[in-house]
Amino acid sequence: MKGYQGFQRASVVFRAELLHLVRDPISLGISLFMPMFLLFLIGYSVNMELRESAIAVYDMNKSQQSAEYIKTVDNTSYFEVRYRVRNYDELLDLLNKGVVKLAIIIPPKFSENLSKGEPAVLQTLVDASYINSALFILSYMEGINGAYSASIVNNFLQTRGHAFSAQPVRLSVRSWYNQALRELTFKITGTFSIIILGFVPVLSALAIVREKESGSIQQVFASPITPSEYIAGKMAPYVIFLTLDYLFIMVFGIWFFDLPFRGLIPALFAATLLMVFSCVAIGFFISTITGNQLSAAMLAIVFTLMPALIYANAIAPLDNSPVGFKLYSNLFPGAFYTDVCRAILLKGTTMYEYLKAASSLIIYAIVIFSVCAWRVRNKNI
Fold first, then answer.
1. What is the sign of the dihedral through the CA atoms of 78, 80, 83 and 88?
2. What pLDDT does residue 363 have?
3. Does a structural domain hold residue 307?
4. Which residues of the chain have pLDDT under 70?
5. pLDDT at 160
6. For labelling, which of 66, 172, 236, 360 has a CA lying 20 to 30 Å from the CA of 75?
7. Where are the beta strands (DSSP E) in 232-377?
8. Cα angle vertex 281, ends 276, 283, to 5°?
């Protein structure tokens, strides 16, 4: 009987909060269109691949061999030879202005050294002010140069009747779970975690602070409802509505960006429900420690939206971060959800196979919910 009465009290709060949520078109619009906007923004604006990067070439040799080398570089999907300069100063000017990120200088004795079997040293100038692009450029150039050198050795051996390969050990690479190595597959599956962690706390952070501003929170303190019942009733509309909302966004993203779906829908639903519940709890915690809606919204943005881009393990892997920042990332549920979501979508695994990450989401949600209830019980809001 006592449990049924508690359920009834929580249901009253649930209905009141649900009516307020449905009658708030701004919150409804933010919950649907802003995550969709961020999905397209990251999908099409954030580019981590190097494609047709403009390069400049200063060919001081002007031989058939140098022309073949330039053609080898230009025929790749990574670089495009757009500038053929006539002097060194012109080359430096293009680098200084940021027009090109890579400049290749072919020395006058390039073909002569090759014909003698001697090393032909090419000078490559890389703009390292953008370190990620510089590392990509260096890696691709080393691969292209290695392939070109191997072809020269093979031709030399074949003309002398030798069948020895210049590359005796070859890799047979087979990419699992993302066979085409699509960048979109990686980005969008990570963006699902970012949009939940970034927007759900912002929407739910206004729930309690709104009642504190109006003074109606005092009626809650005077009523027989327990803190756990009050928090559960307030959180339930957000959890239900936002879980369905973000499942719709995820289904749309999977369809629009042609992502694989190898797992089970119930597993994805359970993981998303836990993630949304955790993020709603974060918003409620923020709502208990702030005094007005403006400060609650600002704190939610600073505490969740910004860290979501860094600590959700969605765009930049946390494995490369220092130990201290890895531990700090555990304050946010994004990394746990990203692992589970990618495993379900790309690998077809269940939550049981990622029980550690799933358990972390459950523990995280319970802890934050308990802290919110404790603050209401002690009237520390």
1. positive
2. 85
3. yes
4. 1-4, 6, 156-169, 215-218, 220-222, 351, 379-381
5. 67
6. 172
7. none
8. 95
Residue 172 lies in a domain: no
Same domain, 224 and 366: yes
On the 0-12 / 13-18 / 19+ scale of CB atoms within 10 A, 26 is exposed
- Helices 265-289, 334-342: crossing angle, 10 deg rounding: 170
How many domains would you assign to the chain? 2
The residue with tokens 């430096």 is 92
Tokens for 232, please give them.
């559960």
Q: Identify the pLDDT of residue 184.
A: 85
Q: Could you list the residue range(s) of the whole structural domain that residue 217 is in?
A: 2-46+180-377
pLDDT at position 157: 65
The CATH number assigned to the domain holding 106 equals 3.40.1710.10
Query: Is residue 169 included in any domain, yes or no?
Result: no
Same domain, 256 and 358: yes
- Give the count of alpha carbons within 13 A of 264, CB side only: 9
Rounded to whole angstroms, what are the CA distances from 232 to 4, 225, 254, 274, 369?
14, 11, 32, 14, 8
CA dist., res. 288 & res. 81, Å (int): 59
Is 281 in the same domain as 227? Answer: yes
Whether residue 357 contacts residue 270, with contact meaning beta carbons closer than 8 Å, is answered with: no
Other residues' Cβ atoms within 10 Å of the Cβ of residue 72: 15
Can you tell me the distance from the alpha carbon of 352 to that of 375, in angstroms, rounded to the nearest whole number? Answer: 33
Q: Cα(128)–Cα(351) distance, rounded to whole angstroms? A: 42
- Same domain (yes/no): 124, 211: no
Same domain, 111 and 38: no
Answer yes or no: do 240 and 347 share one domain.
Answer: yes
